[in-house]
Structure formats: C-alpha cells, structure tokens
Amino acid sequence: RGSGIMALDIRTAGSTRNPQVTGTIRLQNAALSTATTPFGLEQINGLLNLNNNQVQISNLTAQLGGGQVTAGGFVTYRPEVQFNLVLNGNSVRLRYPEGLRSVLNSSLMFIGNRQAARLDGRVLIDSLSFTQDFDLANFMNQFTGDTAPPSGESFADSVQLNISVQSTEQLSAVSSQVSLEGQANLRVIGTASNPVIVGRADLTSGEIFFMKRRYELERGIINFTRTDRTSPEVNLLITTTIKQYNLSLTIVGPIDKLRTSYVSDPPLPPVDVINLIARGQTTEETTPTSLGANSILAQGLASQVSSQIGKLAGISSLTIDPLIGGDNRNPSARIAIQQRVTKNFIFTFSTDVTSAQREVIQLEYQLNRRWSVSATRDENGGAAFDAKFRKVF
User: Fold this and answer.
1) Nearest alpha-carbon partner for 208 in 135, 258, 264, 267
2) In angstroms, rounded to a whole number, what is the distance separating the alpha carbons of residues 185 and 180?
3) Same-domain status, 246 and 278
4) 2-6, 114-118, 241-245, 252-256: which is most confident
5) First CA to last CA across the chain, in angstroms?
C-alpha cells in the first residue's frame, strides 16, 4: 500500500524492441507499507534518474520508526533485474520482536537479482526497552517450537542475510516484571523469509519478578547456536531470600527445555527449596489447614486474579494470599502490592483485609549490585531501617 506525490518527467526514443527511456521520477512525502512487515516507510523524498535500462537512486530519504533512512545506488531492469543499493538508518525505532522496543543505527548493502540476493551489513543497538504490555512468558514462547519451513516461492526466500547486530554500550531494559543490563554480539543469518539469530548475549545484572517474588540476576549468558532456527540457550544464576534462607537457582538449557538446580544457605533438601519458592514455607512449616482443598482452590483463583490485575495496572507484583493473616481458622486474605518506581527503587505495601491496622509499608533502594537500604513501617506502627550487603560464594 502506497501514497504520496510522484512527479514524472520521462522521455522515450528508439524502437519498441529497444526503447530508450530517460528522465526523472521525483517522490514527495510518499509512504509505503506491506501487510507482511511490522513497520512501513513514511515521508519518502528523493530523485530517481532513468538512464536507458537503469534507475539511479540519488539522495533518497525516508522516515522509519521516527528515525531517518537514506538510500543510494542503482537498479538495472533490462535484460534482467539487478540491484546494488546502500541503506543507512539513524535512530530508527522498531517494535520487534513483540514485546521489545529498540533504537538502531544501521549500515546495509543489498546486492543481487530476483533469483539470488544478499543483505549484508551492521546494526548497532543504541537502546532497548520493554513495551508496556510486555509479558515474559509470551515473549519466551516466541522462541519455542519449530517454525514452518519457507515455501521457496517468494522473493524473500532468495534473499540471504548476513547482518552483524551489536550493542553500542551496556544496554538497560526495565519493565514491571523484568530489569536487565547486558551486552549483545549477534548475527542474523538465513533468509528474509526465515531469519535466524546466532551469537551471544551477556547479562551482567538485573531483576526478575516470578511467582510474585523478586529474584536478583547475578549472571546470565544467552547463546544462539542453531543455524536452522532461532533457539536461545540460557545459563542464568538468580538469587532470592525467603525468610532466613538464601536461595540460588541455576537455570540452563533451551527455552522450551529448561533445567533448574537449587542451592540453599542454610542447606535445605530440594523438596523444601521448591516448597519455599512456591509457598513461602518449608514442608515442616506447612500445616494441614493451609494445604486443604479449599485453600489450594482459593490460592489458584487468587493467583489468576492477581496476575490479570497486575498486568492491567502495570504492577510489578500483586499477591492475593488466602488464609494468610488474621485467624487462620477463618477465611481471610493478605494483599501485597510491589511496584518498581524507578530502576533501583521498589515500593511494597501489604495489608490484611480482616484488619485495617495490619498494614506493612517498605521502601527499598538498590545502591549497587551489593548494597541496598530499606525503611519499613510494620503493622504496629514501628519503623525499622536496614542496610543489606550481598555476597555470592
């Protein structure tokens, strides 16, 4: 689909078998988009010079994702279509893949014909961010399962890719669920109809909210080794503290077949670690009342409700925990809201719905990867100030 102004100044001579076509085509404020791409070109301006069997592109500019794109080179259309184009992008903003926004600078060359073409060059990632509706599970699902093989019938199937994708500096991306810092050194290969990412991304720090709990990312490596499809393999070390237990989780493997190992300090058996992560208590602390059928059903329903409300409100973590708080022999609930105000500042509010007096407020500020300070107002009105130093052995 296209729009805009096209001014033609074309002269023809010669015979019908061998016409001589010269002139110019001027584009003014044109736009071009297709149904198969997630973005389109706007504000296309430039001059195309026709010289017999060739179109020379000089100083063609356009807007793509709020950034500027320039193109130059030539296209020969007789006796067969051939092209040699240079494409440059500056501060181009793309929402791709789904859930991510990136600001890019690029320098690409597009060479070939309709039967065989190549797109080579380099893309630098200036910044990376998550979209407002980012969902970690949905994002990971994009890289699971096998994709259908390309049909081999379109022009995109004949375009070979060889594009270097690198971060210009330490990247930082923050959402209500995930906060990551790291660097990327990737390459896009395959075809335009079936692009494949290979290379490596290093995560140096970050936080992940999972099952209503905050985990610190100590280190992370994401390798893309398969050349037939994009299949990231992760090696992550994340830590959290539940009650007096410091837990370390190592997650390795491809996205669709992750394996997790657990380490606890003080030591706990694996079943206790899993129960501690899932329910916030060890098997010894679990009472028959809290494991009753009604409690399990209520917690499942509360988990679904809190997940939907949290996503709608953009809250980092919203927990509705039945039969916690108040008298455990009677139905009640404790609601805890955790919100990332800035990258390093987290606000937590917790209340027991059976009593307005049982409210806990905590403010926590992460000074760096090792040090954090917090201020807490407990349900009795008392205040406490803490400084935490984290060291992984």
Assistant:
1) 135
2) 16
3) yes
4) 114-118
5) 59
The domain tally of the chain equals 3
240 contact partners, CB below 8 Å, separation of at least 6: 213, 214, 215, 216, 247, 249, 277
291-328 pLDDT, tens digit per residue, is 444 443 344 434 443 444 344 344 455 454 444 334 44
Nearest CA among 389, 391, 386 for reference residue 371: 389
DSSP for 5-47, written as a single string: EEEEEEEEEE-SSSEEEEEEEEEEEEEE--TTSS--EEEEEEE
Q: Find the domain containing 114 and state its range.
A: 95-286
The conformational region for residue 369 under phi > 0 = left, psi -120 to 50 = alpha, else beta, is alpha
Mean pLDDT: which of 60-74, 166-180, 370-384 is highest? 60-74
Contact predicate 338/362, CB 8 Å = no
pTM: 0.68
DSSP conformation letters of 178-209: EEEEEEEEEEEEEBSSSEEEEEEEEEEEEEEE
Give percent above pLDDT 70 in the chain.
Answer: 74
- Is the model's pLDDT at 112 over the cut of 90? yes
Among 17, 47, 79, identify where a domain stops.
79
* Residue 87, in any domain of the structure: no
How far is C-alpha 322 from the chain's CA centre?
33
Same domain assignment for residues 195 and 264: yes
Could you give phi then psi for residue 334, rounded to 5 degrees?
Answer: -115, 130
- Do 129 and 224 sit in the same domain of this protein? yes
Confidence of residue 160 (pLDDT cuts 50, 70, 90): very high
Q: Do residues 205 and 264 share a domain?
A: yes
DSSP 71-101: EEEEEE-SSS-EEEEEEEEEEEEE--STTEE
Say which residue the tokens 């394996």 belong to: 259
- List Cβ neighbours of 103 (8 Å cut-off, separation of 6 or more): 67, 91, 92, 93, 125, 126, 127, 128
